[in-house]
Design brief:
The complex is a heterodimer of chains A (114) and B (112). With 114 residues, chain A is an all-beta fold. Chain A has no helices and eleven strands.
């Protein structure tokens, strides 16, 4: 079955530690996205990538890094510079059709600070 | 700039209709969407409407778009307990990279 897989489902970070969230898709989608969800604030865009080996900052990129070495994979690293990392992180992908960006989402990773 | 707003909470009785509202500020929206999020899960696209349409119906779902007032609504007929979730409206804008902007989400509670 085609879809997007995020792992792990739950992740805990210690002070000063970098952690990496995995996102893999087998939908052959060109574009991939990372969103952060906080209660009552909707989704905020962290980073996006429209093509392999290229990515752009979203609205809240500080304290995060990404890579896009393969079309299927778009891992997100939450660095120690991100002082408030506790949130629900969602990965999404889509084919780039002009104007109608129907996003497919993974099931999310809940990151908490120890 | 882009701003998409929704009320945070809606409670309805099972079998009644639910109406979830959304307002947006950017008049260059091309497509508007409704997504559903069940607890602890990702978002699932329910339906979408092109900005030159007024209405779209899909089984129990009716989307109404008032472009003059920049108002979007989602009506769910015969609401069921399985409809309890958070509903997000979203928009894409014309020109350049098609960034999707999400609203804050409306939590729908269906009372049996």
């Amino acid at each position: 079955d085609g879809g997007i897989t995020q792992s792990p489902k739950y992740l805990f970070r210690k002070e000063g530690q970098n952690v990496t969230l995995s996102c893999e898709q087998n939908l052959n989608h060109d574009a991939m996205y990372w969103y952060r969800q906080d209660p009552g604030q909707g989704l905020r865009l962290i980073y996006y990538s429209q093509i392999v080996n290229d990515f752009q900052k979203g609205d809240i990129a500080e304290g995060y890094s990404v890579s896009r070495e393969k079309k299927e994979s778009f891992p997100l690293t939450v660095t120690s510079a991100q002082k408030n990392p506790t949130a629900f992180y969602l990965c999404a992908s889509t084919n780039l059709t002009w104007g109608n960006e129907k996003l497919f989402f993974g099931s999310g990773t809940q990151l908490s600070v120890l | 700039g882009e701003d998409v707003e929704q009320s945070l909470f809606l409670s309805v009785r099972e079998g009644d209709s639910s109406v979830i509202n959304c307002t947006y500020t950017d008049s260059s929206s091309t497509y508007l969407y409704w997504y559903k999020q069940e607890p602890g899960a990702g978002l699932q696209l329910l339906t979408y409407i092109f900005s030159n349409m007024d209405m779209k119906q899909d089984q129990r779902l009716t989307v109404l778009l008032n472009k003059k007032d920049k108002h979007l609504s989602l009506r769910i007929a015969d609401t069921q307990t399985g409809d309890s979730a958070i509903y997000f409206c979203a928009e894409t804008l014309s020109g350049g990279y098609q960034k999707v902007t999400f609203g804050t989400g409306t939590k729908l509670q269906v009372i049996p």
